[in-house]
UniProtKB/TrEMBL annotation:
Catalytic activity of the protein: UDP-alpha-D-glucose = UDP-alpha-D-galactose
InterPro entries: Epimerase_deHydtase (IPR001509), NAD(P)-bd_dom_sf (IPR036291), UDP_G4E (IPR005886)
UniProt name for this protein: UDP-glucose 4-epimerase
Keyword set, alphabetical order: Carbohydrate metabolism, Isomerase, NAD
E.C. numbers: 5.1.3.2
Pfam families membership: Epimerase
NCBIfam families (alphabetical): galE
GO biological process, any: galactose catabolic process via UDP-galactose, Leloir pathway
Length: 319
């Protein structure tokens, strides 16, 4: 039994690979290194460099390594940039998922855990998002993830594919000192870069209808996320039932000001964040309900906000 992790050299994927190792399950990494980092792949774990758009290479990798299931993390994950690069986003996330599913069908692999996104909800009509909340993605990225879920659903009807999709908002922290978030667009790396350069981090708006006036969002630790990806894989291996999709959410969220306070404490760098104008369209509060995932996928918030900051700061590369 072996699981292929597409995007397994990336921030989230590498944590999933290590969680497979902790669970005693063999993993194979497939990554084109467009954003992944080869050193994130543990020693002894097979690594194939290539694009999921290459159906033949994916199928060959599955066959050569006796792969029985796939955790599909690979994709273009920059929601804001996807507005400027919609065709690239659809190519990577929609066509790429199609090619992966074709390769799986070619080789008889019938189980997949899909790394989806809470971006499928767009700006939801309620503050607490459940799996049944209407889907209204606000970017090509969110749309591409929703289409990915549809592809899995339709392939299940056609071939009996067993699948589940995991949706989440903001992934932070680090589960190992050599794994870090290298994204140029995510909040934690942006704040770390600002502090390292002597710049003052900014809060966009402090007049929202929340306890401290700043937006409240869901932040989850990447290591907690990895546990639930592997738990989903194990349920599929065991033939146990799964929901089509699960939210991996805190149910409560944290405010931007709380994050800044934790940044000050966790980094040891004293600062007072600048208050900038609101960004258009930012809702007061959006958090996800993780009840179903807690029931089925060993989902729980094992890390405090301060632990999210300190683990990320300890792993962050220093220039």
């Amino acid at each position: 039994m072996s699981w292929l992790v597409t995007g397994g050299a990336g921030y989230i994927g590498s944590h999933v690979v290590r969680e497979f190792g902790s669970a005693g399950i063999d993993a194979v990494v497939f990554d084109d290194l467009s954003s992944g980092i080869e050193s994130f792949v543990p020693e002894g774990v097979p690594f194939v460099r290539g694009s999921i758009l290459d159906r033949g290479l994916v199928a060959d990798t599955i066959a050569r390594h006796g792969v029985t299931g796939v955790v599909h993390v690979a994709g273009y994950k920059y929601a804001g940039v996807s507005v400027q690069r919609p065709l690239h986003t659809y190519d990577q996330n929609v066509t790429g998922t199609q090619r992966l599913l074709e390769a799986m069908a070619d080789t008889g692999v019938d189980r997949v855990v899909f790394s989806s996104s809470a971006a499928v909800y767009g700006t939801p009509p309620t503050e607490l998002v459940t799996e049944d909340t209407p889907k209204a993605p606000a970017s090509p990225y969110g749309e591409s993830k929703l289409i990915g879920e549809w592809l899995l659903r339709d392939q299940a009807v056609a071939t009996g594919l067993r699948h589940t999709s995991l949706r989440y908002f903001n992934v932070v922290g680090s589960g190992a000192p050599d794994l870090y978030d290298a994204s140029p667009h995510n909040l934690f790396p942006l704040v770390f870069d600002a502090l390292a350069a002597g710049r003052t981090p900014r809060i966009n708006g402090d007049d929202y209808a929340t306890p401290d006036g700043t937006c409240v969002r869901d932040y989850v630790h990447v290591a907690d996320l990895a546990v639930s990806h592997v738990a989903a894989a194990r349920r599929l291996d065991a033939g146990e039932s799964v929901e089509p999709a699960y939210n991996l959410g805190s149910g409560g969220g944290v405010s931007v000001r709380e994050i800044m306070d934790a940044m000050r404490e966790g980094t040891g760098i004293d600062f007072t964040p600048e208050i900038a104008p609101r960004r258009a369209g930012d809702p007061d509060r959006i958090v996800a309900d993780g009840t179903l995932a807690a029931r089925d996928l060993d989902w729980t918030m094992r890390h405090t906000l301060l632990e999210m900051v300190t683990s990320a700061w300890a792993a962050a590369p220093r220039s």
